């Protein structure tokens, strides 16, 4: 990093300086003010974290910087100074010289941010060619190098794959590769690690930290994970209802929060709290018959040809476990460890290569037709993404009653009554029945997804990363809800998560997976305090929030 930037300013001045920023959205119901009078500075060589719950305006602020707001959004007031430019007033042609080359953006949702019909390597190579950093001949090899820098394992193989062939975490790392390809001065990272397990999260954040230290790159980190902010950011900005309610050095704010909202956020953060476990139901006795039993399960996939020819990936390798009624078994591990594939095999959404799956004593490993249908009535799934798992065309009443209609349970009146009861159970008003998914927040959508999963009174619910896309306050509410429902109904949960801080609060048993195998199993307190396997110790060491000591009293006092 040179001593002066292109406009001759000293590096002691902010790289990005926002003053009085106001942003609104035009809706059918009128104008919604999303950001109101925000002041924010980002310094060279520093990470500035913006935290707040869903709807606080943090992502809108980030997108307003490069004017990537949705079509109904507009900047109403304020300045966005970046070097010699006011980005709020630049023309589109001038903005194109800044976006990508000088400011890189890591979007939140990898499922919709990558081109589904282009290979991953081609998408990274395109950035290098557009900004004159590689030729058509050299771009493919350099793209692989960038993917490797972003932490994507086996980058040469992944470069030949399409987005749908990668896990959510791998897609997120591909987006990070695209953002850092041109080595920009500022990286805006909008929830860059929300889909990543703790070890990969650490790799990505370590890389962003190295960029700030070695080249003076600034990072504006938008996150709902206060543990990540506590570990990585030099400065913290807390937003609430479109305004900045507190800002300053991270350690000062975490050690002595001044605003009540900041204190609430800290109290609700799993990695920064010592709150008691939510598992209100005691673990079942070992001599009771298991609800689900997995024996030596194997699942293999064919990989695309690369180098020496076709390859086979053993995604699940000799996995065995048991799950009892009223129990929560958590499967944890890195992205690609096989935990979600294992869950799909248990639900018979995919066929096992080898092994056995027993449900309530019956072998369902190869169940087809009526037997598979009966299993799906008793075992339901809550997906990771509350924004993509609900049909946007249907009102919520139809979404919740869809399983009842599919299995011809009851008549229209009884199904509607069941939907009202389920909404009450998940603490949503009856008026929600008439609304559509787009009218609900992420937390409300996830509550609807849980209500739908409970419609048939299943014995087992598979929760595949059910809170990873939610901010800490809503995440806490959903976890409390899951624990209450288990206490009331005795439902069993197979809980898939990369967040060990969450797992510690919700699980009776934890199975740690690595490269398709279960390497350690045990109660959470035993696993967290006396881990036997080196990989488990690595996962625990990677939990964010441990670098900055937070006095317990400061997160709860008013």
Chain-wise SSE layout:
Layout: E1 16-27, E2 30-42, E3 47-51, H1 58-65, E4 73-82, E5 85-86, H2 92-96, E6 103-106, H3 110-113, H4 120-130, H5 139-149, H6 155-158, H7 168-180, E7 186-190, H8 198-215, E8 218-223, H9 226-232, E9 235-240, E10 243-249, H10 250-255, H11 260-268, E11 292-303, E12 311-323, E13 328-333, H12 339-346, E14 354-359, E15 362-363, H13 369-378, E16 379-382, H14 396-406, H15 412-425, H16 442-454, E17 460-464, H17 472-489, E18 492-497, H18 500-506, E19 509-514, E20 517-522, H19 524-529, H20 534-541
Parallel strand pairs: 3-8, 3-9, 6-7, 7-8, 13-18, 13-19, 16-17, 17-18
Antiparallel strand pairs: 1-2, 1-4, 4-5, 9-10, 11-12, 11-14, 14-15, 19-20
Question: Please, could you describe this protein's structure?
Answer:
The strands form 4 sheets. The protein has a 6-stranded mixed sheet, with helices on both faces. Strands 16-17-18-13-19-20 form a 6-stranded mixed sheet, with helices on both faces. The protein starts with 15 loop residues before the first strand and ends in a 17-residue tail after the last helix. The protein has 20 helices and 20 strands. The chain is globular, with a radius of gyration of 24 Å. With 558 residues, it is an alpha/beta fold. Among the domains are: 13-102 and 233-275, P-loop containing nucleotide triphosphate hydrolases (Rossmann fold, 3-Layer(aba) Sandwich), CATH 3.40.50.300; 292-542, Rossmann fold.
